[in-house]
Amino acid sequence: MTRLTAQFWVQAYLARLRLADIPAFVTAHGDDTAGAVLVKVNTLDGQARVYQRSFDLMRDTRHWAVLTEGEEAAVDASLARQKQMDPDLWVVEVEDRAGRHLLDQPGLSD
């Protein structure tokens, strides 16, 4: 199975968010072809959550799992540490008071 490049996936994700009127921005541009993607959901109330793509070996599936959550300053500090360890990392920040991120929708959830 052919994998999408990180840049293509990010651009498609941003387009899907725009269609749902959910603001989102790339805050860290990683490697265009193989960079990992983290999605930070900022609920604009001082809280945030970061999702990372995970692989479930038992089910042979991929899903989005929470990497960290809590006060936005602590979440941002965690992201800064992640970026230091992985300079190829992409970070997409989604801003939505209701916490919508669309990662659970078909095409993004699997």
Structure commentary:
- This protein has a domain at 23-95: hypothetical protein tt1805 (3-Layer(aba) Sandwich).
- It starts with 5 loop residues before the first helix and ends in a 15-residue tail after the last strand.
- The mean pLDDT is 91.
- The protein has helices at 6-19, 72-85, and strands spanning 24-28, 37-42, 47-56, 61-71, 90-95.
- With 110 residues, the protein is an alpha+beta fold.
- Helix content is 25%, strand content 35%.
- The chain has 2 helices and 5 strands.
- The chain is globular.
- Strands 1-5-2-3-4 form a 5-stranded mixed beta sheet.
- A hairpin with a 4-residue loop joins strand 2 (37-42) and strand 3 (47-56).
Topology of helices and strands:
Layout (H helix, E strand, L loop, with lengths): L5 H14 L4 E5 L8 E6 L4 E10 L4 E11 H14 L4 E6 L15
Parallel strand pairs: 2-5
Antiparallel strand pairs: 1-5, 2-3, 3-4
CATH class bucket of the domain at 23-95: Alpha Beta
- CATH topology heading of the domain at 23-95: hypothetical protein tt1805
Radius of gyration: 13 Å
**Beta strand %:** 25-35%
Unreliable parts: none
Report the total helices. 2
Secondary-structure element string: HEEEEHE
Which strand order does the major sheet show?
1-5-2-3-4
How many beta strands in the DSSP annotation?
5
What's the mean pLDDT score?
91
Per CATH, the architecture of the domain at 23-95 is 3-Layer(aba) Sandwich
Spatial shape: globular
**Secondary-structure content class:** alpha+beta
Helix content bin: 25-40%
Q: First CA to last CA: what distance?
A: 13 Å
Main pleated sheet: 5 strands, mixed
CATH superfamily of the domain at 23-95: Protein of unknown function (DUF1491)
